[in-house]
């Protein structure tokens, strides 16, 4: 009997090994090398990175040129700090030719909180003197109703980017965490929520790098019950925990200033220093603060 058992175990082991090689073949078929690049080769690949202007020169300077491609940029703040205004402005500026030979392109907007307003794009288009209908035609819009639905939409996004290679330049999700907050509540479901969130963010990262697009997500804030112990000036923090913190390449914190002024601060970035920039919310979207 024991001999049989040994014989039985063998094929299972071979299957695993074969499936590993099949996975590697599959990766190579999709143009993904499961090996290493030299730092020089990677720096050549990074030369394809472009920046999309926010509409404010000060803000762009803070970000090193604007919203970066091949990366996830997260903007978080309380309500009325300009997150959705920034999303709408980017819908227009991403279509305009910009610095460094950027040619402009189409946008996909995933809306989880029903905050997308096409009329707002018309106002912003007026500021940049571009045709309303052309601007609206270049934005693909989807409303997500559950976190599962949000995940499924990313499959559609990847297919679209693959189909029309090089045409799409920006993916916006406003806001990234809202549906996860609704679908998973309480501490009992936190682990599952974070796992699902991690899967979605890993998908987003892959999409941004594979298709060289900029990914811009907005996020909400929550009171931090532990902050009173550490005497922080502002006891609020972005939601999503460490998983979202590590997935976002650049995190920008937004807060209200006087009147229509808003202050953006680099909260976390691999290459930009922790500076601040003041910008204004105008009829034509995000602009520079007038002194």
Describe this structure in words.
It is found in: Nucleus. GO terms for molecular function: ATP binding; ATP-dependent DNA damage sensor activity; DNA strand exchange activity; double-stranded DNA binding; single-stranded DNA binding. Keywords: ATP-binding, Cell cycle, DNA-binding, Meiosis, Nucleotide-binding, Nucleus. With 291 residues, the chain is α/β, with parallel strands linked by helices. It has a single domain, classed as P-loop containing nucleotide triphosphate hydrolases (Rossmann fold, 3-Layer(aba) Sandwich). Helices cover 43% and strands 23% of the residues. The chain is built from eleven helices and 13 strands. It has helices at 2-29, 39-46, 57-62, 83-93, 118-127, 132-137, 147-163, 178-183, 190-210, 227-230, 241-247, and strands spanning 51-52, 67-68, 71-76, 106-111, 139-143, 168-174, 214-219, 221-223, 236-238, 250-256, 261-268, 276-282, 285-288. The strands form three sheets. The chain has a nine-stranded mixed β-sheet with strand order 5-4-6-7-3-10-11-12-13, sandwiched between helices. β12 and β13 (285-288) form a beta hairpin. α7 runs parallel beside α9 (190-210). The longest helix has 28 residues, at 2-29. It is globular. 35% of the residues are buried. Mean pLDDT is 86; it is low at 2-13.
């Amino acid at each position: 009997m024991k001999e049989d058992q040994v014989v039985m175990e063998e094929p299972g082991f071979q299957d695993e090994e074969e499936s590993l090689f099949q996975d590697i073949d599959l990766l190579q078929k999709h143009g993904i090398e499961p090996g290493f690049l030299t730092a020089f080769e990677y720096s050549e690949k990074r030369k394809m990175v472009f920046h999309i202007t926010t509409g404010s020169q000060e803000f762009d300077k803070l970000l090193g040129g604007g919203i970066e491609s091949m990366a996830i940029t997260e903007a978080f703040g309380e309500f009325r700090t300009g997150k959705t205004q920034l999303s709408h402005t980017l819908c227009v500026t991403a279509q305009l030719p910009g610095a460094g030979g950027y040619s402009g392109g189409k946008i996909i907007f995933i809306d989880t909180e029903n905050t997308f307003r096409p009329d707002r794009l018309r106002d912003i288009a007026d500021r940049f003197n571009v045709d309303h209908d052309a601007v609206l035609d270049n934005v693909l819009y989807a409303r997500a109703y559950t976190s599962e639905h949000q995940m499924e939409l990313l499959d559609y996004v990847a297919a679209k980017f693959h189909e029309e290679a090089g045409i799409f330049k920006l993916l916006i999700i406003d806001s990234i965490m809202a549906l996860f907050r609704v679908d998973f509540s309480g501490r009992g479901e936190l682990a599952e929520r974070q796992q699902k969130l991690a899967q979605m963010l890993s998908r987003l990262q892959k999409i941004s790098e594979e298709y060289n697009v900029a990914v811009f997500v907005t996020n909400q804030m929550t009171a931090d019950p532990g902050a009173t112990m550490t005497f922080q000036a502002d006891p609020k923090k972005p939601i999503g925990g460490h998983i979202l913190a590590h997935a976002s390449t650049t995190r920008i914190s937004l807060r209200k200033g006087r009147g229509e002024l808003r202050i953006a601060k680099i909260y976390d970035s691999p290459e930009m220093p922790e500076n601040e920039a003041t910008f204004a919310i105008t009829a034509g979207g995000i602009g520079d603060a007038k002194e």
